[in-house]
Design a protein that fits this description.
heterodimer, A: alpha/beta, Rossmann fold, 3 domains, seven-stranded parallel sheet, 8 strands, globular, B: alpha/beta, five-stranded parallel sheet, 5 strands, 15% strand, binds cobalamin, binds guanosine-5'-triphosphate, binds magnesium ion
Chain lengths: 315, 157
Amino acid sequence: MSDIRRLARRVEGGDLSAVARAISFVVDERPGSEELSSELYRRSSSVHKVGLAGPPGSGKSTLTGRLISYWRGQGLKVGVLAVDPSSPVSGGAFLGDRLRIQDHAGDPCVYIRSLATRGRVGGLTPTIFGAIHVLEAAGFQKILVETVGVGQDEVEVAHAADTVLYVVTPGLGDEIQALKAGIMEIGDIFVVNKADLQGKDKAVADLRRALAIGAEASPAGGWAAPVLATSALTGEGIAALGEMIERHQDHLDSSGQRSRRLKDQLRAEVSLYLARRISRSVEKRLTERHLSALVERKTDPVTLGHELLDARGGA
Amino acid sequence: MVEGTASPYRILIAKPGLDGHDRGAKVIVRALRDAGFEVIYTGIRQTPEMIARAAIQEDVDAVGLSLLSGAHMTLFPRVASLLKEEGLGDILVFGGGIIPDEDFPLLRKKGIDRVFGPGTSLQSIVDYLKEALARRKQATDGKSKARKIKEGAKAAK
Ligand code: B12
Ligand SMILES: Nc1nc2c(ncn2[C@@H]2O[C@H](COP(=O)(O)OP(=O)(O)OP(=O)(O)O)[C@@H](O)[C@H]2O)c(=O)[nH]1
Ligand SMILES: [Mg+2]
């Protein structure tokens, strides 16, 4: 058996160090990662994925910890992918989410992995889908994906999760109006976290009002996105949130939306893969000579681009 | 990133035991991030078991331990031996804090590659880490190549 297959079998056996190594293979795109991905994908099935988005510091990681406890209480195995931004200058990253999810360190049914965006805008890493498939293959029954708290850019999480939680705080006030575009459409459940602080009721009311305006334009398959208040600090509202997540999952099944979403996710995954592969193989053909020709205006970027794309067939 | 190009090294910075002095650890986290590493910080009050589990789940290349309380002689080697037990002896373990020079040799013997005390320049820590990790990588690449050759020879028989 090849090393890759052996690793795949260990992942399927739920061995967490194999899961960790497999995710590294996939996100680093190491040699053998494609074999590993196909091996794992074909032998597993899809799992309910919950995405968490929202401004920095709104409590996504702390809430993640609470949701893990909630699902552990139901005996479910939970996998978490927590994404933080890479520094555009150094390429390094401080991956701080794990710091806030401490209570499950000893639990063999919980796996938490921090990932860096590595130069990708939109809140996710380009290889997040591959990491999700590793968790699916390892038998996790709930998968949580926490994205970078960058506001408007986070729309991407909708391509990776079945149920998207959008997490805000009472202090946000008028900013909620500004957040409306883009984000409002992707949230399936809105959470006003830090409900232990002042201004919770107003924030909930503001959000409901903002959502009511949006809802007329786009009723998302008959699901009116609810607004819930939680405190990840005290645990208030967590059970209600857990139940709402189940309700949304049921809705996806009964409305036929589940397979629609899954197909959207797979389309996004394939198109990201194509974009990476094509641009890599074509860019390799771009030489100094081509650039000089452009400088001298003997050709133009569009014509050159076409030529490079056409020459690709032999690659 | 092209298949085969290097991804950033991943480092876990951890504070074992009850020591609450976390400034040094945070300074190191920031310096490593700015030097291009992906850094995960556990926070304070971690048991060696928690640190080893985090290192496994995060698949890090190195674990940096920070301790100013004086308990390094028990806690540092414990982390190193837990990693070894899990078959992850190739993770680099290093550390820093208030650590007397005379403890260095024994720590090294117990799997702590190197320790840095107060006033160490951050650049020298970064340089050390890059160098040590590159060396390890070469060593493990060599090992897996050797194993492949061995397996190949077996298959040929
Ligand atoms: C600031 C400080 C505090 C602050 C801590 C604030 C905080 N959140 O960090 C406060 C006031 C809270 C505090 C409390 C105590 N402190 Co105090 N404190 C200090 C002091 C003055 C400076 C430490 C510091 O922050 N330095 C700045 C940072 C940047 O330096 P650093 O941590 O040494 O890190 C550098 C290197 O060591 C190394 N490094 C550190 N970690 C790592 C990790 C890796 C991986 C690497 C590569 C390198 C590395 O790189 C860093 C950069 O160069 C030191 C004395 C001293 N000069 O060191 C005493 C000192 C550490 N404290 C001491 C004591 C005894 C205490 C208390 C027990 C006092 C008491 N009786 O209440 C409490 C315990 C608190 C607790 N919960 O653990 C003693 C420890 C004695 C010992 N080891 O035997 C010291 C040495 C003072 C002394 N001379 O007695 N303290
Ligand atoms: N008062 C209060 N504080 C909270 C609550 N939830 C989280 N916090 C605090 O808010 C801060 C940020 O929490 P995180 O969970 O790290 O927030 P986050 O959204 O994951 O942050 P990023 O990942 O950096 O975007 C921490 O200091 C938490 O302790 C809550 O319900 N109430
Ligand atoms: Mg977070």
